[in-house]
Amino acid sequence: MGLRRTAAAEPLREVVERAHPRDLTGLLEQLCEGSAEQRRWAARDLAAHPGCTAALGAQLRTERDAAVRDALLTTLGSLGSPDAAAALLPLLRSEDARLRNGAIEVLARMPAAVAPNVPALLRDADADVRIFTVNLLGDLQHARVLPWLLDVLAQDSAVNVVAAALEVIAEVGGPEQLPALRAAQARFADDPFIGFAVEIAIGRIESA
Amino acid sequence: MNRVATTPGAPARRVAISDADFLKFRDFFYRKTGIHFDESKRYFVDKRLVERIQATGAEDFRSWFIALRFEAEGRELQQLVNAMTVNETYFFREAYQFDCMVRDLLGEVVQRKRPGGRIRIWSVPSSTGEEPYSIAIYLLERWPQIADFEVEILSSDIDTAVLRAAEQGVYSARSVAQLPRPYLDKYFERLDDNRFAISRELVSAVEFSRVNLTDAADTRRFRDIDLVFCRNLLIYFDDLSRRLAAEALYDAMAPGGFICLGHSESMSRISPLFRVRRFADALVYQKPLHGESA
Question: What is the ipTM of this complex?
Answer without folding.
Answer: 0.80
